[in-house]
Structures are given as structure tokens and as C-alpha cells.
Amino acid sequence: MVQILEMELEELLQLNPDDIRHELTAGELLHIATMLDAFWTYNYSAADNGKPGHHAELKSGLHSDGFFVSRILLAPENIRTLIAKQMAMILRERMGILPNFVAGVPDGATALAEAVGKELGVPTVRMQKVDGKIGLADSLDPYISILLIEDICTRGTGFSEAVAAILQAHPETVILPFDPVIISRGGVEEVSVEHYGKFEVLPIVTLRVSDWMPADCPLCKRKSVAIKPKSSDASWQLITTSQR
Asked: Which fold has domain 80-206?
């Protein structure tokens, strides 16, 4: 069995996805993300020693002491393929029949959806984000089914927006009742989309990361400043180095 937890960065970048035949553990996925600099966690010890630094403001508006950047995690082709194989493995166990298309919530799951579609043998339909709003980039035939892929689930905010965007434009479309994700970081087991139903979260791994409403954030009380880690490369650099 391949010992992922013992691998350094160069070994991970040479990893053959076909050699991984088991379901990844939370520890293994976290190790990969950490080695790729795709995961940040707040350093409470540094804060106790006068370095409160920055912490994460999520898309939902919540504040958090941990953050994943799927763009970095999925950048190496072999790791993206590995994640897609893991996701496809879970989906085959849950889906009765394959959908007509796979789509990814933009922008984090766009490339992942293509990789998952390849593993399942299903074509993709593209979504895009324009002026902050999610919509379809491709036209759809009527009465088709779509499997919608997400990267990281905290509250399902982006997933809900994508479901609503598709079904408002194409109400005859069927979206499979699943939300496949790399990581469920908020412990959410299903995403309820108003007017459109409930979608079961299907994570590769579940990893609890703390988050709070801004008014209750203990990191703000430590004088740490909340920033949006994915707003720019500079923001990610800032949050990962602010407590050194």
C-alpha cells in the first residue's frame, strides 16, 4: 500500500493515481494539501505570543481558523486525477444511472468536473461566473440530467447558487440530488436549496474546521484581521505568513 503520509512534495508530484486503490483518509488528504501549500490553519500559539495575524473570511460571511484553496490542490494533473478517481468511486456507489452531463461550480470545481466526467465517461457542460454571478456558459438541450460538482463545502452557498442558476434558466433540467465535494469542512450532510429540494453532500473526506459569525469570532477578539484568502494571490500569501 502506498504510504501517502510519508511522502514529501516531490514524491507526491510523481504519484501515479492508479496506484491508490483505497479511499483516502482525512489525514492523507490533509497531508497532500499541506505539502502543496493548499491548506492554512490559524496558529493559536503564535497569537498567544503577540502575533494575532490574519484569519479567513468565508464566502458565506463566516470567519474561520482553517482554509483550503482547491485551485492549488488541483493544479498538479496527477493530484487532480487522484481526487477525480476518489470522487467517481463514491458516485458510482450512490448513483443509479449516469447523468447526461457533469458541471462544476465555478471557478473552484471547473477543472475537477472535467476530470470527474472523464472518469465517469460523461461529457461536461460549462458554468461561469460573470460579475460575481454564476450562470451557464453552454446552452442545454431540454430534459437532460446534470451532476453538479463542488470543491469544498462549508454551507453549500456556491452550490445552491449554481443549482438555482441552472433551474431558473432551464426548469425542465434534472439535477441529481447529490453535492459531491472534496472536503466537507462544516459537517453539513445535505444542502437545502429553496424551491428546488435537498442535495446529499458526498465528501471524499469530512474534516471539521471551526467557523463563527463575525460578531462571535474569537479570532477577531484576539485582534486578528479577517481577510478573504482567495481574493488574490497576495491575500493567500498574507494569511499564510502573517503569524511568522
From this structure: Rossmann fold (3.40.50)
